[in-house]
Structures are given as C-alpha cells and as structure tokens.
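Thread: assembly with ligand

MN 10:42: here's the input set. Chains plus the small molecule as SMILES. Want everything predicted jointly, not piecewise.
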Amino acid sequence: MTMPPPFADSTRPIAIRVGNLLDVEAGRPVGPRTLLVRDARIEAVASPGDGAPDDALEIDLSGLTVLPGLIDTHSHLVGEVQTAGVPGTTTSGAQDAFLSVRNARVTLEAGFTTVRDLGTFRAFVDCALRDTINSGELEGPRMLCAGAFITAPWGGGDVVGLAHDITLPADLRFGVVTTPAEVRERVRRLLIGGADLIKCIGTGAVLTRGGVPGAPELSEEEMRAAVDEAANYGAFVAVHAHSDEGARRAIRARARSVEHGSMLNAETVSMLADAGTFLSVDLFDGEWALEHGEAERWPAETMRKLAETMDTGIAAFREAVRRGVRVTYGTDSGVYPHELVAKGLDTFVRCGMTPLQAIGAATTVAAECLGWADRVGSLGVGRFADLVAVDGDPLADVRVLETPAVVVKGGRVALDRRDG
Ligand SMILES: [Zn+2]
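BT 11:07: finished. Tokens for the full assembly:
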C-alpha cells in the first residue's frame, strides 16, 4: 500500500488566485477565492481580499473557472490495447512500461489528477509507474493500482488466443485463480507486493478473444474471498461485471464497485442502489470503438460484442442515474487515445446526467469510491491542491473540460495552455 508523497519541490506556501471556484458539493460556483497551499495540500480557502503570506508563490487563475482535478475510476495507463493481436504477447514489459509514460502524462494534462488503474496483463507494471510518478521522476496522475487481474483460467483477465501448447510466463498469469483459497493467496501477494486495490474479472469481457461478456466467470464465494482478504489490508475490490448475474454476485459479496454494468436490468440496478455499491461506467470507449474500430482493424467478433453492449449499457446507465446509484466516471482509457479521457463526460450528459452530476461522478463520488475523499475530489481544506481551470462554464457545457486551460497537481502547474 502506498500513499502519494508530499509535494517536495518547494517549501514556500503557494497562493492560487481563482476567478470562480466551482463547489461541486454545493452544486454551484462560489465566486473568486484564494487557495493557500502548503506541502501540496490546501491549508485555507480565503476571500480574495485576505492577504496571502509574504513569501507565497502565486498561481494566477483569476480569469478562469476552477474545479477539483478530475478522477477516472477505471483507467488502464499501461501499454496499449492490442485488439488485433493477443494482449500481453505482442509487446515486451519494457515496451508496456515506456508506453505508459506518455499515457500518464497526457492523462494528467487532460485534467485527470487521479486515476484508479484497474489492471495490467503484466503484473505490477502499473505499480512501477505509480511509484515513479510519486518519486517525481515522471509526470502523471495520482494512481491507485490493481497490480493484475484476479480472473478465472481463460476468463476476461487471462491471456487468451494463443495455441493450447504455448506456456506463458508467470507474470502474465499472476491473477489466474481456480479456488477461493487461491483468491486469498493471490490477493495477499498483490497487496503486499504493492497493489492498492483488487480487480476481479467477474464476467467475460468484450475485448477478450472468444470471451462472452455476460458469462459469470468467478463464483460469489471467490468474490467474497477477495473482498474479505482485501479488507484485512484495508483495501477495496472492484468487480468487472457486464451481466446481471455477475453484478449480483459482486453486490452480495460487498464489492466496492461494479465495473461496466453494461447489460444490467432494472432489478439489478435497484440492488446497486439499495446496497450503496458504486457503479463505475464507461460509455465513450464504446462510442469511439464503434466509430473507429473498423478502420483500426478490430476483429469482427469484438465489433459485434461492442454493438451488443452499447445500447443496453446506455439503458442501464439511465436507470442507474434515475435510481440514484452512486455512478462514477470510468473510461477503460486506452481503448481510445488517452488524450480523449474527458470526452465521456459529455456522453454521460447525453445519456441522462446533468453536467453537475457528470462532474460529481468524476470528482466527489469518484473520490468516495476510492476511499480518498479526505485527499481528492474537492478543493476543501486538507485536500491536495489538484485542480483544473477552464475558460467557460462547465455547468452549462461539460465539453469545456475537454481542453482545460490549466491543470495543477499538488500545487504545481502541470499544464498551462495559456502560454500558447
Ligand atoms: Zn478495463
């Protein structure tokens, strides 16, 4: 388990002059404010007239609307999606790691200061990326990492598609389990080895060769073993589940979140609402893939499964919003170019959320899902000074978040487009 380190570049306080602060919890802009930052965290939220310390460094965002840095509750920053080949077998671990450097930087520059990274085929490459970002060697968001996928053999998180007599290296099949006892052992190895949370592949996956998206692949007993063992280490479990049966097992097993939920009916959605289970939804990746997949030479089988889960996914999302499920902003980033990571906010609005709800899904609600509400997702005292500044009103049009003018992480400017 790791914590983001304190901001080490400067011991001087920082005064961030904000033109108009969007208070997501209150649901409205509260006007100009000055955020006083020390050691990467917000020490005070002051009125513009209040004096800042004499030695304070200043970041001037006075012409802009400022909101908390965005959070993606379902990213994949490591490597690239290999839809044409078999995942994990066409790039080396070194290539995966180097590709992730760019992915992390563009994700941060797109305004995402925190991500929950939900699995990589080569175990622990995500944790290495997180640790290198935290050491200050690389630009990227704060990361919570799953380390690998807990998956059934030939399940949605296994490497599928090679000939039956090919033996894969252990790090490509780190999370493959066949019993609840194995789940517990693997969960321990992941969490002690550096993962922050556990990702279970509860049902088949759209992008896995031959996989059946709705098919339950882990038993409820196995999910429960993961949740119980992870709880011993203070960690949560996210369960990938497209179908009702997979999601219901996850809800009953007390998973923290159901991922995708693209085939859920109204009854399962109401179970989510009653249990308070978070639903981490990604919709833009499907939209993008249906538009570009053919040109990108995605297999016909993948395109068919995408088409089958898109309309049902939107229907489930609408129902979840209507019933007050705690929906968070997921992306499955990497399916599409990482710089487009904010595009799904507009998809959420087109599919039934208000702009404020969409922003909440990527800030306050997401932070709660991560168990990080005390450090990210809002710009209150004690939180990290992670923010995006935009020219325009995101409550009128969330698309202004697709091109943030300034991104600040831990009180340090990560991107300033105003420089030209
Ligand atoms: Zn995913």
